[in-house]
Amino acid sequence: MKLIVVGPRGKMGKLITQIAASRDDIELVAGVAPKGRDYIGKDLGQAAMTGSDLGVPVVDDLSSVIDDCDVIIDFSTKEMAMEVLALALEHKKALVCGTTGFTPDEMQRFRDAGKEIPMLYAANTSKLVNVINKLLEVAAAVIGEEADIEILEMHDQWKKDAPSGTSKEMGEIMAHAMGKELADVAVYGRQGVSPREKGTIGYHSLRAGNIPSSHTVYFGFMGERMEITHHSYNWECFARGACDCAVFLAGKEAGFYTIKDVLHL
C-alpha cells in the first residue's frame, strides 16, 4: 500500500512516518509539508527524524505527488485538512483524517466525501480508546438516565481545540445511546451558582505541559461512582492506529468509514 503522510514534522506525522517506515505492508511515497517549512525538499526520513533516509521527498504541493499513492494520512491543521480533502476528491484517493476541531458543516463535507472516495475519519485512532467507546455506549444505554455523567479530558499546552475531539465523540456516543443529541445536553465547565441539571453531560478540559492524552468519564450515583479512564503515555498508540486505518482503507469501495470498521466493533 503506497502512502503519503501530510505534516511529517508534526507530533503525529512524525510518528506515523516512523511507524509506516518499519512496516512491510506500507510503502511511503512522499511527505507533504505546509508551504515555507525549512524541511521541504529534504528526504522524508530526515524530516520525520527516523534516523535514516527513506529515499522519498518532502514537497509542499500535494497535487504533484498524489497520483503516486493509494492512501493519504492527514493529521495536520483543520485549514490544511480541507485542502487535502479537496485534492483527495479530485484525484479519487483514499483518505484517513485524524485532525480535529472542525465545524459541523466541515464534518459534513468529510461524510459527503464518502460518496466518492474511501474516507475514514477518526478523532482518536487508539485501539483502547475505541474499545472504551463501546463500553461507554453500553453503560449509557443501561444507566445513562440515572447517572450524573461528567467528562474530564487532559492534553498538552499546544492543543488548539477544547473539548477534545475524542471527548466530543465520547459524549455523542453516550447521548445517542440515551436517544439524545449531544448539542442538547452538553454543559461546558461551570462557574458561580450553577447547580447540576439532570440529564446533562458535563465537560471539563485541562491543558498543561506535554500531557499526551487522558480521558475519564464519571458516572455518578448517590453513594457510589464508576469511572472509565484511558491514559496514553505518548502518541505512539495513535500513530500505530492511523497506519492500521490506512492499510484497512486501501482498495476499499467508496464510503464513509470509522475506526469501528477497522476494529470490527
From TrEMBL:
NAD(+) binds at residues 7-12, 38, 98-100, 122-125. Catalyzes the conversion of 4-hydroxy-tetrahydrodipicolinate (HTPA) to tetrahydrodipicolinate. GO terms for cellular component: cytosol. It catalyses: (S)-2,3,4,5-tetrahydrodipicolinate + NAD(+) + H2O = (2S,4S)-4-hydroxy-2,3,4,5-tetrahydrodipicolinate + NADH + H(+); (S)-2,3,4,5-tetrahydrodipicolinate + NADP(+) + H2O = (2S,4S)-4-hydroxy-2,3,4,5-tetrahydrodipicolinate + NADPH + H(+). Residues 1-124 form the Dihydrodipicolinate reductase N-terminal domain. Its EC number is 1.17.1.8. The lineage of its organism: Bacteria, Bacillati, Bacillota, Clostridia, Lachnospirales. Belongs to the DapB family. Pathway: Amino-acid biosynthesis; L-lysine biosynthesis via DAP pathway; (S)-tetrahydrodipicolinate from L-aspartate: step 4/4. (S)-2,3,4,5-tetrahydrodipicolinate binds at residues 165-166. The active site is at 155 (proton donor/acceptor), 159 (proton donor). One of its GO terms (molecular function) is NADP binding. Residues 129-263 form the Dihydrodipicolinate reductase C-terminal domain. Transmembrane segments: none annotated. It comes from Faecalicatena contorta. This is 4-hydroxy-tetrahydrodipicolinate reductase. Keywords: Amino-acid biosynthesis, Cytoplasm, Diaminopimelate biosynthesis, Lysine biosynthesis, NAD, NADP, Oxidoreductase.
